[in-house]
């Protein structure tokens, strides 16, 4: 779904602001995961934008990881990939990064807003789906593969709830029901709220997948 939140808040440039609303905080979450995990784990990141590389540039600008560990993929030359959300377009860069850096964790941001076709388990071990409260409290009960199948649902920008008249208790109830008890986290990623909990979920999955203990 396209973001409807175009309110601009002071304190940072118009560009950043538009960018984050457009992505429901996906790039902000990538940045938060990088900064939380990079000291103990070898990381690499691939971002995905339909026509620009601004997600990758955002991560570089904010020092998420050393620049050489970040790849930005433009799907614009291949509209079919963007429409079908064909995450395989990331496999080249992911493999290359993985081999170069012996990465413990590869973070991959999917481009576009319609995540319907992204749920290929061959391509991702762990999927986080992020929605944003500004879209209203009906989003969880509308379902869709992101809501129901993602390993973790992040309900971001909880600070906007009162402004948009969204009821977090309703979102919580619907998220639990739609996800059949699967985990979700309320967050304000840009302000660091909920990030520790998200990282904990990711590391728990990493431990199970690798048989290693977290560091």
From TrEMBL:
Q: Which residues form the CobW/HypB/UreG nucleotide-binding domain?
A: 25-185
Keywords from the UniProt entry = Chaperone, GTP-binding, Nickel insertion, Nucleotide-binding
The question of whether tRNA processing is a record keyword is answered with: no
Q: Name one Pfam family in it.
A: cobW
Location of region: Disordered:
1-22
Q: Where is the composition biased (Basic residues)?
A: 1-11
Which domain of life does the protein's organism represent? Eukaryota
Any one of the GO BP annotations: urea catabolic process
Q: Which InterPro entries match?
A: CobW/HypB/UreG_nucleotide-bd, P-loop_NTPase, UreG
Which GO molecular function terms does the record list?
Answer: GTP binding; GTPase activity; nickel cation binding
Q: What does this protein do?
A: Required for the maturation and activation of urease via the functional incorporation of the urease nickel metallocenter.
According to the record's subunit comment, the protein's assembly and interactions are: URED, UREF and UREG may form a complex that acts as a GTP-hydrolysis-dependent molecular chaperone, activating the urease apoprotein.
Q: State the similarity comment.
A: Belongs to the SIMIBI class G3E GTPase family. UreG subfamily.
Under the heading PANTHER family, the entry gives: UREASE ACCESSORY PROTEIN G
Q: What is this protein called?
A: Urease accessory protein G
UniProt organism field: Aegilops tauschii
């Amino acid at each position: 779904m396209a973001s409807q939140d175009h309110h601009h808040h002071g304190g940072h440039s118009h560009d950043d602001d538009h960018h984050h609303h457009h992505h429901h905080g996906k790039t902000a979450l990538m940045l938060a995961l990088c900064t939380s995990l990079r000291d103990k784990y070898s990381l690499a990141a691939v971002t995905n934008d339909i026509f620009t590389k601004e997600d990758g540039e955002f991560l570089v600008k904010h020092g998420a990881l050393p620049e050489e560990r970040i790849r930005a993929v433009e799907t614009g030359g291949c509209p079919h990939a963007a429409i079908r959300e064909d995450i395989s377009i990331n496999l080249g860069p992911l493999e290359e990064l993985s081999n170069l850096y012996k990465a413990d964790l590869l973070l991959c941001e999917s481009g576009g807003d319609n995540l319907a076709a992204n749920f290929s388990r061959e391509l991702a071990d762990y999927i986080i789906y992020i929605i944003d409260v500004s879209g209203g409290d009906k989003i969880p009960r509308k379902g869709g593969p992101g809501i129901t199948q993602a390993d973790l649902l992040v309900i971001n920008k909880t600070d906007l709830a009162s402004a948009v008249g969204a009821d977090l208790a309703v979102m919580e109830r619907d998220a639990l029901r739609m996800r059949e008890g699967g985990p979700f986290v309320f967050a304000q990623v840009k302000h660091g709220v909920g990030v520790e909990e998200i990282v904990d979920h990711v590391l728990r999955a990493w431990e199970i997948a690798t048989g290693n203990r977290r560091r």
